[in-house]
Every structure is written in C-alpha cells, then in structure tokens.
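Researcher: Let's do a round of design. I'm pasting the structure tokens now; please hold your answer until I've finished.
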C-alpha cells in the first residue's frame, strides 16, 4: 500500500477522462483528493471507487461549473484553508468547426473555462502556496497549444494561452526562487469525452478517427512522470505519440536589455 500523503491533490474536470484517471493514479500514491466537476453523480461514483481501493484517504467532492466566473472564486475560497500539495487544472473542452460556423455562447463558455478559470485558479494558488515546500501547479494544455490544428483553431488558441501562461509562470517562479513549481502537460489524441463533446457526436469513435491514441490511464502515467520530474513540460509528439519531458519551449525574454527597468 502506498504511504499516505496528508496533503491534498486538487483536480478540476475530475468526473471523466484524464481527470478521473489522474485521481485514481494519485490515490494509488496515497494522496488525499479534492475532485471538482459539474456532474455530482459521476464524482461520487469515482469517490466510492477510489475509497473501495484506498479506504484511508480523505476524498472531497465539489460540484462546480467553472465556466461561470463567480463559481471560480467561490470554489477557491472554499478550499484555500486545506493543506494542498498539488493543484491540477484539467477542466476544459474544445469545439470543432470553421471559425465562422462557431456557436458564440459555446465559444464564450470555452474561453471562460479554458482561459479565465485556469488563470484565476493558478493565480490564487500561487498567491497562497508559492512558499510551500513541494507544492506543484500542473496545468493541462495540449499539443494543440504548440501547433495549430485545422478546424479546431479557437481551441488551439486557448491552449496556446495555457502553454504561454504556464511556461511564463514557471520562469517567474524560478527567478524568484519560489518553492512552488509550475508545470504543463500537453497531450495529443487521448480517448476521452473530448471528441464527442467537440464534435457534438455521442457516437464519436477514436478507433475510426485516429486509429492510434493514448488512453486516459496512459496520460495519467505521463502526468505522474511530470509530477516526479524536475522538468517543466511533458509533451506528446502528435505524429509519433511519443512522450518526453523537457524544459519550457517558448521564447522567454528574461535577460533582454529591452525589458522594462524596475
């Protein structure tokens, strides 16, 4: 049995896919959990499943739609006094289709969730836990946060933001010698509910569409590898599906003579 970790690992978007698989993986390491998503029934079922295997863990369920801005602050205020060791911003979704055909309210919801909620939760966590030994913030981006994929341009743009924000935050924390580490996971094709939601097709079939892909459990293993490493980025190659850990990839003007003098 894994040794109990008294700190909590917080996971947004935990009701399915990578979030649920990550919850199972961190539970196997003895982490107490805070599971956050919109679907209470799915969260409670996951909690019961994990408790059956790890009865000593404390598992907290919080139902929240993080695409609603006021819910983000309420959620964090509810959790901030917990001894949190790791915060994983996994909640997000995409939509397929040409930009001119996109449903505007749906796009607004995506922007609120993929960008605004992640930024606010990251900022609040940094504010409170920057000097906590061993603390980690892990944001889930996408390989689509490093290249633009046809017919999913707006989603890729949100993930470019996640990649730039998190890599920049990692550089900032390192420069100030903070104890908190910011990291970034960038999956490629992964068998989750993403395809069905993005295409508005409950019968979406990863075997037919991609042929080869990772499972959520495999992605959770990559997430643990990133968690265990000293690297900032864990990224999957879109063509080969190979996973590697590496330093930040985006240009960073940390030592530029053109920076603002402060």
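Researcher: That's everything. Go ahead.
Model: Designed sequence:
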């Amino acid at each position: 049995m894994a040794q109990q970790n008294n700190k909590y690992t917080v996971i947004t978007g935990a009701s399915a896919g990578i979030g649920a698989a990550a919850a199972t993986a961190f539970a196997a390491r003895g982490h107490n959990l805070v599971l956050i998503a919109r679907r209470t029934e799915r969260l409670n079922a996951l909690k019961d499943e994990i408790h059956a295997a790890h009865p000593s863990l404390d598992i907290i369920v919080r139902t929240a739609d993080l695409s609603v801005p006021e819910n983000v602050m309420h959620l964090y205020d509810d959790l901030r006094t917990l001894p949190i060791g790791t915060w994983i911003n996994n909640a997000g979704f995409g939509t397929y289709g040409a930009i001119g055909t996109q449903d505007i309210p749906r796009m607004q919801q995506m922007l609120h969730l993929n960008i605004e909620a992640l930024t606010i939760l990251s900022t609040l966590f940094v504010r409170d836990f920057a000097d906590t030994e061993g603390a980690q913030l892990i944001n889930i981006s996408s390989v689509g946060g490093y290249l633009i994929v046809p017919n999913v341009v707006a989603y890729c743009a949100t993930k470019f933001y996640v990649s730039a924000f998190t890599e920049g935050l990692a550089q900032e924390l390192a420069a100030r010698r903070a104890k908190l580490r910011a990291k970034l996971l960038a999956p490629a094709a992964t068998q989750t509910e993403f395809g069905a939601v993005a295409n508005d097709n409950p019968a979406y079939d990863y075997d037919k569409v991609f042929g080869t892909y990772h499972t959520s459990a495999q992605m959770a293993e990559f997430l643990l590898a990133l968690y265990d490493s000293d690297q900032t980025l864990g990224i999957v190659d879109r063509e080969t599906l190979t996973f590697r850990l590496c330093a930040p990839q985006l240009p960073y003007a940390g030592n530029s003579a053109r920076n603002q003098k402060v």
